[in-house]
């Protein structure tokens, strides 16, 4: 099995510990982004994974490539060129103080990429799965065109296509998102979303959810999933359910709608180390499980356990093994020392 | 609006993370103190704030000035002279292990200051509010004289005066504190205290509180506030209510007694990053809210939300904006990532 | 009073914070091991304590000696020679992700030590207590012989002997452990174990405990203690009871069976800073309390409070004073700042 | 005396120590830029100094303001708005490996500023000196227009105007630079340049210099200065002379041409800590000395000593006092410990 | 072109800065070793490079693989198995205090490897060059057998073979080294050595060199090279010439004997950042240059410039590009900032 | 052999690297002082060494004790009591920027100590050597009395007494120093001084030295030594000769006058890591060599080599072994890696 993801990788700059931006005399640096994170997850699970993007031809772009190589991702299609590497500044929240992200991604190399930059048939050679998120087309019209070309090529080559809706209000409006994303949906088999995305992108709202307050209604999510399925005829719809108690503590679960059945995972009460990339690690887990032929409920539990573990790991990436995820999914959440 | 605070600023030296003093090979350094912290809070809220003190004429004293300047405080009246900058060593506690403070403030420049050092009419020119705490006069008789002169000048100039009782048993006895503080009370409009101060300074005890055990009685605090009001005719009395579950987890709330009414804030369950300066951030929030003409209940909720956020921030200072406090006071404590 | 412990000291290498091994660009270094940790606990309590071991004659071995000296342990019998200092790599877990230990202790100097290396009568001169754990004999047959010689010499010299069963599956099998440990038991007065040791070493199982799930049955532990007492005629049997909620949160308590009575300590809900050495700090507390003539229940509460505090301290060692432990054992778990 | 500078302030991100970009897991962060650096130098010398720029209205922009405030610079005219704060990545060289700068300053807030943003008469109220460098107009045509307006307003208000030619090949061509800079020269009194600038901007070449090889000819520099004076009728021309032995060791000196006389400073052999901002610290020293009415030779020696010391200080800024500079300019370069 | 190297990769643990082992509370961690370093050099030069070794199947072994992947080395033949990853502790010297290495490499996975573990024909498929050093066979007889098999397979496949004699007295005696290494020499085309190796391995001594004193005689080295060539009929012999002035300052040059001609490189006076891997970076540069068909003198200057730059880079690896090396080899050693 | 030293130990707080005080967000912490440093030197050379002082009874005082214990010093006579531990802030200089020390030692526990605190006969039991410096009596009259008592007791017990004149202008005047120190000289056998001390304490000036300029005249120093010997009848007079080229580079040598002969050591050109404690390490080396019965010239060379190495070591203490010193004294200053 082999998977391909396509999107942006950014330099993430975060003050050490719980310092606020204004207090920081240094920034911890990692390189991440939604689709890059999924590729690393898959590589850590032993799935050959390629990440497709464009980075500037300078040492910062090279460092982004190196980070992906380090964790075993195929970087042959991390193209070089363009102005700069996108940056995001992350301030880690705690207790009632939320984490804060300042994006500085304008003029990023990938946002300047064009459809012609990518030889999709070559990229997809030997691949089984293609994954992208709503962030990629939001980067610019030319990138959106490249996404469409990728979807078409993926379908033509017989790949399964997954899309994490991942709405980002800083990048585009709901209106623009809805129109653009709708183009890709015919090619998508597996649709992934969090508790807000379906509404923000396609105007599909869970009737009685209260996201800020953290209450989650199973029935509401079922309705959303059914509506998504109805509109776009997805093979599977997965929705992550985050209950935000505080910046330090979250509840985490997900639902999978497949073959007419709704599966709800167990809910993990999480003490957060690093919450960024939580959704991506769910996508990574789900893709791995589906590629491996897990039953729907098992696939869901694997994906949720994988992303639960992500919240305990610094950085955007989910550095866990299949064995570690299976232990947790299998019921051992005790955190006892492994000697 | 413009505010002035008067007191000591110290070099705070803390081992990294949760190391004990004996384990530390380095100390993280910030500069803080009760009244300095209030000045920074106010500056962060956009209120022109001046901090009055004395620091030694050496690079350590200069660094204290720089830290205040950095956050926008007017440092024109941080005088130079005297022997040394006071120091306090802070060991951060966790779970059942309490935080530990070792004071090393003898011979500090401010403790050697004299009434004549400060030109209060000039200092208060254009100001609306004067704030000090019980720590300032506890530093020495000559500083207490300066406090009295400040109170008189403030009143003469029509400022509102607030005082945080802030009893420190290492600096003086309850007897000395009671006698000294009583001199200033006629000038004080707003009295701020924590759950112990009223008893330690003026012998006014909440009948049925158990501070160590963490139980708090609303009726007890009402009684304390009424007695304070009766004795000193304050315009407002505010008492913070800390429920210490452990060094890692506290409950935090406050009461405001004003115009004959008792207001109790919501209670925040806090996962602590840095607890020092919690009370000061309450005072800063309350002064801001009162200067801005908030209704009593709103002022209280603003002050409590501000100080709740402080517990999530490293160092003595409360680095939050008005907008951040209002979001929390408005009910969003979910800590969801702000993008 | 004076105590002697015998065992291995290792270099512990841990990534900073919550980084995984693969993410680490540096390792924090401390030196610890079961019996070394007990010696440091005792020295911190003011008990003259000697640690007996063998370290390589190189700067890494010297650093291990220095660490023990730093905290006041008598290092006259930390012999020099052999190939290398054992190492263990520690990755700190969080939430549902368990801590992970990678041992790299083969060819360690102490594992190469022989009975003849240690002059036990000289070592025990003036001593009242001898402590070892099941790890020491597990290091190799020649070390096991040294343990036996130590036990015999300790008894001959009238010392009290304590043993923490401390089963390590990486070092030996249950079968080998049971056979070897049984040789030492006739010399042991005080037997210490965690919730698994008795079963793993001597096949004595608490009937209805579920360790991974974190449920603990008082009756089950009573049965284990009685059986241990029956088989080996110990003066006292102490069993620690860890309830693993997650890698971040544990419940911690213990039982002491002495003079026919079962004592159960209070249970501490712990927010974990560093869990390694938790059991050793219990042993250290118990030995101190017994050496000081505490009543059984008081000794137990002292030992549990001591080890509760250990969980809030970085590194293997328990850096707390008798006064700090007594404050907690006396009921103040509020973690309020000590000024 | 009071001085105003105008230009860009950037976030500088540098790997710790001598790590290369690709090795870095964190970046040390300071905020600097040519004109900001001059303002800090002057503030450190006790000269009231204001820095005029535009930064984005986000925490990164605020941090830049805070850094300037911290060192006593007047930040009232650091406007807020625009897309982003410019960034430059700095890799510190050593021995034969040169330092490396990767600029990421496109779309910076200041580059988007327009003439109308700045109320120069208000800004220059009470000021004696205006300083800018060739970097500011290179940021964009609209900024160049603002520079021209500033020059005109400064002259109208009777200020002395200094300009550091500071050619940056990444920002514009020599042709564009020459044409643009020529517009400002009629308003400039004091022209500052390094060994390359005069040639790169105005095509004025020192006949026999070999910059890469590090040989410097006094006569060549005299010729350059005379030609500059002839063309633009400057009151004074200062040229810094850097002899690059390696990335670790430089020789440093300067020439001042004033009132028809050439003054050459002593040459300092420097072991480099941080070379960035070296030229700015020379400008800062020269402006201070001229504002203070130093004789030409003394002003030159002060400026060179100030900038010599800068090379021993981390970051872009020159954190030295007048007394420290005078000690070195006075001949004590022994570096003996000051107790 | 494609190259393969074979040897050990170790975890290198070094105290930060200039701390001695006994002072260190942490160790900086990188992964390196003679042949691994050469592979990274080549990858950084754009040469497809594979590193062949064996590491333990645990996270520490995985981290070693990741480090190689990060810099673009093919790790398909970094096998997994065996006891542990070898470690070396490095204390960085300064001035008159030498750097100090404590090896802890017994029982390393690669030392336990056997001839059968490596499928050389597959490994060498498509490769042009094979490189090993004298360290590899010194790890144990079974590894020496694997080296012999590799040499034979390399020759059979038409690869060029290079060997860096690299004598390590801690691993074997000169006698054993001489006997073992002699077996491989018939397969070796390019022999690389430092100023001591030829004597220590084959008893060939430069008549009048004084290594400790730092004097180097060109004639002596010529004699050594001629004798090596005579004995083993190498195509080329390269000898590095290190003049140790102090732990902080070295002179660095090399000689290449090829086609009957002696070439001496320029000598670089180096201010040392990290001296470890200096020889390996020379080998890497030489292999690149020879693979690229450089003339002998150019190849030598490239190799010496590459290794000169290595001394300015932290860690074992040489992170420089071909362009950077060529700039230095071309004569620009000024270290001027590259913007 | 056994030695005793008496004096102050301080907490030393230094910004990391070359940061100035005003830039520091943390301070590296070690514990040192003239006589403490000598004790550590001796312990590192294997000489049983006791350090006598008084530290406050708080965790900071305990940390000072721990640091001494860590390196093997007998701390039985580090008494507890008094107000605080003295502090000194150290800013490391570089190139032309000198290092800077800010003392904050008023009210230190040792300065409050009295003659009666120290039981000298018990302290000197079994000892051969007593060492103190001019700093100890400068701390206060009561400490000076204790020094006198120590000298008398030391002589009575037959110890050799050494004194490093070590004049500190911040602690007393030359006049006071001269008068006080003169009292102790009759008991002193070995007098140690730097190039300034003899003049500052006893008005004995080297006729033609220029300390700031770095020129040193052998004849001048001979004259000083002879005069010292004449006045106080010392057995030996040692003078260190520091040539300050810059804060980064010093020349270092010394002279020993004994038995009517003048011995001059070789001169070491030193690239400085940490210069503080340089003189103390000379004293430590000299005492070791004299206690060990070295010939005068050998003792001198040992002492100078020991202190040369100190300059390459972070912190106040000299962490070197006898073997390391002998290697350097024996002529190997090449700094080649020790494997």
UniProtKB/TrEMBL annotation, chains A, B, C, D, E, F:
Keywords: Kinase, Transferase
Domain Carbohydrate kinase PfkB: 3-310
Residue spans crossing the bilayer: none
GO molecular function, one term: kinase activity
Coiled-coil blocks: none
SUPFAM superfamilies reported for this sequence: Ribokinase-like (SSF53613)
Stated family: Belongs to the carbohydrate kinase PfkB family.
Protein name, as recorded: Sugar kinase
Naturally occurring in which organism (per UniProt): Anaeroselena agilis
């Amino acid at each position: 099995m082999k998977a391909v993801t396509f999107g942006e990788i950014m330099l993430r700059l975060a003050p050490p510990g719980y310092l606020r931006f204004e207090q920081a005399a240094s920034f911890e640096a990692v390189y991440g982004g939604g689709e890059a994170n999924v590729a690393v997850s898959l590589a850590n699970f032993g799935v050959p994974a390629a990440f497709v993007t464009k980075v500037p031809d300078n040492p910062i772009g090279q460092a982004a490539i190196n980070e992906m190589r380090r964790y075993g991702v195929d970087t042959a299609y991390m193209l070089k060129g363009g102005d700069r590497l996108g940056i995001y500044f992350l301030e880690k929240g705690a207790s009632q103080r939320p984490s804060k992200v300042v994006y500085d991604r304008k003029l990023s190399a990938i946002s300047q990429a064009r459809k012609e930059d990518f030889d999709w048939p070559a990229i997809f050679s030997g691949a089984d799965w293609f994954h992208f998120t709503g962030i990629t087309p939001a980067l610019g019209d030319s990138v959106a065109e490249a996404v469409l070309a990728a979807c078409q090529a993926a379908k033509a080559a017989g790949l399964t296509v997954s899309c994490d809706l991942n709405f980002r209000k800083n990048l585009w409006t709901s209106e623009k998102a809805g129109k653009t994303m709708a183009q890709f949906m015919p090619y998508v088999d597996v649709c992934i979303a969090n508790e807000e995305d379906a509404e923000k992108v396609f105007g599909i709202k869970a009737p009685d959810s209260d996201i800020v307050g953290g209450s989650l209604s199973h029935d509401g999510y079922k309705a959303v999933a059914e509506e998504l399925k109805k509109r776009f005829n997805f093979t599977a719809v997965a929705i992550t359910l985050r209950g935000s108690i505080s910046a330090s503590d979250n509840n985490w679960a997900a639902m999978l709608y497949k073959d007419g059945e709704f599966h709800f995972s167990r809910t993990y009460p999480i003490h957060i180390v690093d919450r960024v990339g939580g959704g991506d690690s769910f996508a990574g887990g789900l893709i791995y499980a589906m590629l491996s032929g897990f039953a729907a409920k098992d696939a869901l539990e694997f994906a949720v356990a994988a992303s639960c573990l992500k919240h305990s790991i610094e950085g955007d990436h989910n550095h866990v093994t299949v064995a570690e995820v299976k232990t947790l999914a299998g019921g051992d959440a005790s955190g006892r020392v492994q000697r």
